[in-house]
UniProtKB/TrEMBL annotation:
It comes from the Bacteria. It catalyses: UDP-alpha-D-glucose + 2 NAD(+) + H2O = UDP-alpha-D-glucuronate + 2 NADH + 3 H(+). Substrate binds at F152, T153, A154, E155, K204, F249, L250, R251, P252, G253, G257, K320. NAD(+) binds at D35, K40, T89, T123, E155, K263, R327. Belongs to the UDP-glucose/GDP-mannose dehydrogenase family. This is UDP-glucose 6-dehydrogenase. It comes from Nonomuraea maritima.
Length: 430
């Protein structure tokens, strides 16, 4: 038997806010999601979802009675017991996270004395909770509990990650707040770990940094495999069988991107340097990731002699498959470098909606991979969309000016591609 739901106000209708709001509604709570973007709220009210995330649309549609969207602050706070802050915390010029949206939300809570707890889900520097506490006290909300509840959901599987997490981390300053947030997650299929606020804030940054480290590590091993004749795919498979190391995040490629790893690794590095400590390992992890994209361009340059006047097809633009997200996508760096070297860039992606600005405004977009490959001197598999496997590569070899392929995700089979006449280059495989 479900306990009657809590009343939750979610601030921010981005990826995290929408998933959080929809999942809490699914768990039986009464949720109002508030955003300041009129277009976004209008879209959500009309039953559309502004982002692509599997299962999210159905979940929102299936919970209409318990989930609403508003621009209006009073409507969001009316009767709310818990305020969930899910606004974005983008990097500022200094590298520190820009918390201005967080502070704006917190200021707006002044007078909401009926709240029982304020929860920050946004990724924030360690120590932010203490500042939030002071802000709440100054806003007359000293009696309101505070908790940090970082998210570990990956795009493309956010709903599933929320409902079946490896862990729910709750950082709270008092038992009452911790219990309330734990109770809010009743029905979520995963262990709840309760700790102090600072540690919870650190768990989020440390987890993303370690995942990024695994990828940069295998990318460096891939480079060494190229120099020694080993095959990184075999190496990663066998390394991953050691249960202490695990098979995940050992896929070599063109480097990590997205809205989280680049931002969070920079934020953690900045956080450390603010304390007077230089994070050596993480700095190398970031550098290896930048190098990975430079190496991709260099490989093409070595093969073609020059990139000037060359026509290069980019297959896949999003930072990973299964999403329309272009934030910090490696494709943006590759397109910019190719254009700077004087190449012509033709693109294909089934979902990306790149900004109508540079570098994309200087590239052409094509409906199918085959069309993007027409007349190309080289192609780069940038994102491992499954459609790329289905391309008629024999046809592609015939319509390309030169059948040169850099498979930046080791998606295709080297032997079959070579049989079709391709000059095939992968990452860390012979
Ligand atoms: C990541 C984390 O996986 C989540 O746990 C975390 O909650 C989230 O960031 C966040 O902080 O919000 P996400 O950015 O959606 O999730 O994407 P991932 O699937 O982790 O991929 C990140 C990047 O690493 C992608 O560019 C991907 O292509 C790359 N990657 C991943 C590799 O190059 N190799 C791998 O083996 C795995």
């Amino acid at each position: 038997v479900r306990t009657p739901g809590r009343r939750v106000a979610v601030f921010g209708a981005g990826y995290i806010g929408l998933v959080t709001g929809a999942c809490f509604a699914e768990l039986g709570h009464q949720v109002v999601v508030r955003d300041i973007d009129p277009e976004k709220v209008a879209l959500l009210r009309s039953g559309e979802v502004p982002i692509y995330e599997p299962g999210l649309g159905d979940m929102i549609a299936g919970n209409k009675e318990r989930l609403s969207f508003t621009l209006d602050l009073d409507e969001a706070l009316d009767g709310a017991e818990i305020a969930y802050v899910c606004v974005d915390t983008p990097p500022s010029a200094s590298g520190d996270a820009d918390l201005s949206r967080l502070w704006t939300v917190l200021r707006s809570l002044e007078g909401a004395t009926h709240l029982k707890a304020v929860v920050v889900k946004s990724t924030v520097p360690v120590g932010t909770g203490a500042r939030v506490r002071t802000a709440l006290d100054q806003a007359g909300l000293a009696h309101v509990g505070y908790a940090a509840n970082p998210e570990f959901t990956a795009e493309g599987r956010a709903v599933d990650d929320f409902m079946h997490p490896d862990r729910v981390v709750i950082g709270a300053e008092d038992d009452a707040a911790a219990r309330l947030i734990e109770e809010l997650h009743a029905g979520v299929d995963g262990p709840v770990v309760v700790m102090d606020v600072r540690s919870a804030e650190m768990v989020k940054l440390a987890s993303n940094a370690l995942l990024a480290t695994k990828i940069s590590f295998i990318n460096e091993i891939a480079t060494l495999c190229e120099k020694t004749g080993a095959d990184v795919e075999e190496v990663a498979r066998a390394v991953g069988l050691d249960h202490r190391l695990g098979p995940h995040f050992l896929r070599p490629g063109i480097g990590w991107g997205g809205s989280c790893f680049p931002k969070d690794s920079e934020a953690l590095r900045q956080l450390a340097s603010n304390t007077g400590y230089h994070l050596q390992l993480l700095s190398a992890v970031i550098e290896v990731n930048n190098l990975q994209k430079r190496r991709a361009i260099q490989k093409l340059k070595d093969e073609l002699g020059t990139l000037a006047g060359m026509r290069v097809a980019l297959l896949g633009l999003t930072f990973k498959p299964g999403t329309d997200d272009m934030r910090e996508a490696p494709s943006t760096v590759l397109a910019s470098r190719l254009l700077a070297e004087g190449a012509e860039v033709r693109c294909w992606d089934p979902m990306a909606r790149p900004a109508a600005a540079e570098p994309w405004s200087s590239t052409s977009r094509h409906e199918t991979p085959e069309l993007a490959l027409e007349g190309a001197d080289a192609a780069i598999v940038v994102t491992e969309w499954p459609q790329i496997k289905e391309v008629d590569w024999a046809h592609a070899a015939a319509v390309m000016r030169r059948p040169v392929l850099f498979d930046g995700r080791n998606l295709l089979d080297p032997a079959s591609m070579r049989e079709l006449g391709f000059t095939y280059m992968g990452v860390g495989r012979p």
